[in-house]
Design brief:
The chain has 106 residues and is α+β, with helices and mostly antiparallel strands. The chain has three helices and two strands, in the order ββααα. The longest helix is centred in the middle third of the chain and has 20 residues.
Length: 106
Amino acid sequence: MENKEKKAYYVNMIEAKDGKMAEVLNFNFGGHHDIADMVEKTKEAGLFAKDKHAKEFVLAMRFMHHVIKKNADNALFAEFAPQFEAFKKSVKEKLGCGCGSGCGCK
C-alpha cells in the first residue's frame, strides 16, 4: 500500500557565475512521494549513465506532474497531459514499484 505521509521540501536554486553565487529562485514543494527514494530507485534501475541525470529526471517528473495535476483545466495541457501520464506509467513499470507510483512503497 502506498505511503500517503505528507512530505515537505524547500527548493533553492543558486546560480554560479563568474565565481559568485546568487540565489535565483526558491519555493516550497510537497506531496506524498519520497523524492530521495525515487532518485535511488531511478539510479538502481540504470535508466541513466550519470546519477546527476537521475536526480534531474525525478525532479522534472515530480514538478511537471504537480503542475499538470494542479492545473488540470488549463488548455495548455489538454494534448500533453494524456501523453505525460502514459510516459509516467512506462517509467513506473521500469522502476518496479509495487503501487505503480514510483514512491518507494512495496
